[in-house]
Amino acid sequence: MVNVLALNCEEHEGLLRALTAELPVQLALARFDLPWEEIAARRRGLKTGRAVPIPAELAQALAKAEVVFGFSLPTDATALAPRLRWVETPATGFDQLRFTGVLENPSIAVTTVGGLFAPEVAEHAFALLLGLSRRLPFFVEAQRNCRWLPGPVTELRGRTLAIVGLGNIGTAVARLARAFGMVVVATRPRRQTPPPGLVDRLYDRSELREMLSVADVVVVSVTGAEANRGLIGARELQCMKRSAFLINVSRGFVLEEDALIAALRDGLIAGAGLDVFVEEPLPASSPLWSLPNVLLTPHVAITLASRLPRCIEHFAENLARYCRGEALRDLVEPSARPNSLSEAREAGRITG
Question: 117-296 sits in which CATH class?
């Protein structure tokens, strides 16, 4: 019998129990609300040292758990969970599991919901792109002031879109770009070969700057692996066309934010569409709020009413695989986890 702990799933307990009813599992539910400040710090790779109370029922459930389904866990949670062998987080990334002890422990498997929401994230990337290319913020402001201000806009057909991170999200972005008649180039994926005809050219990871130099639009969709921190910095931005747009639906720390702000102010690139930031919520003092060539949203690419039920369905399918001894879907590769970060940095690996 596999002891399974599901966190913060009370509203969907019926669905979870129905989907796991025929599996040899003992299901327990508990609540753990990690403060937003702690989540934001973990995403930035910072350990706050702030004590977050652990309810007694959670500690008892962790002590028995072999499997945990939940967005995050208490700091150093593995000390409370000696039997833990697998954690699935209902997110596309895993940086919220930093400092729990899970990522550093090679005997604990980690899975995400992977490409479950790739189409939705790709839609959001294109919403940001269309907002910039069609100058929607400018026209919305003109509308508020009852001003008729015709002006040029940028068409996407025939333009080159470069994807940094051709994983599930990047592939979904490429499909939309094809529908808009764009030329698609991308960094070469490590794990899978893109469908025939989807990408016009693949660039090796060492050719990132060359790829950026030919792009009219750059979409960043790499994973939240630590190796990708600061992947797009001042040198990379200087390689881009002055007419190019940059879209980030990955993680805020993938871009060097100060370098991006400088590039936007100096006109090194035409604009940026951002859904993720180094610090979240974005501080009121950030220049990104007021730059006229920035369109930003508060990390809402997959803020969907159906999100958790779909994640539960994904977990239940994976749990059935676990019980049968089969390979888990959307497993985080060991090379993306902290025990291999030094090698990843030295190799300049682009994960995605």
Answer: alpha beta
